[in-house]
Amino acid sequence: MKKKLLVVIPTIMLAATPLAIGASSADAAVKNGSQKVVAKTETRPTLRIGSHSSYVQSLQQSLKDVKYDIGIDGVFGPKTQSMVKQFQADHNLASDGIVGPATWAALDQNKIDRKQFTVNNAIALGQKKLGNNIVFSGDGRLVKDSKNQSYYTFKAANKDWINQGGSGTIGWFHIYKDGRVIEE
Fold this sequence. Notes:
7 helices, about 180 residues, about 15% strand, single chain, five-stranded antiparallel β-sheet, 5 strands
């Protein structure tokens, strides 16, 4: 009987030990509040042509929200790839058409930037610099230059010239949040 107990007790202890260690360390992480908080961009998958999912729908909606002309069908096809490449180029990212953490982060940041610096803000800055007799038109995309500064691109036209039957165009301008209005 003693020999059986000597064999059975260590076996039970060995089998129970990993379970106890696993439970206590997990409990300690939650109790200590040291659980890792994963950033949103880390939780989304890498997407590429051929992907089909709700994440693709989310990507398409994000592109549409930031003024890229795209439908929302959950299929990462050639049109989605083209819009992703355009977005990447507009934000100084590798224009490979693959949506990884950097592209997800740029989409998220663009949404924040658009709330802080709207199209209407940009037009007001442009009119302040060029005059109230100027009208602006553009695609509404907020893009980044090589120094990571956000701007809108607008065609500026003179109202008087338009009223006289012309196009009124005086040029294309980049309008920055800091008030810079730079002709292309």
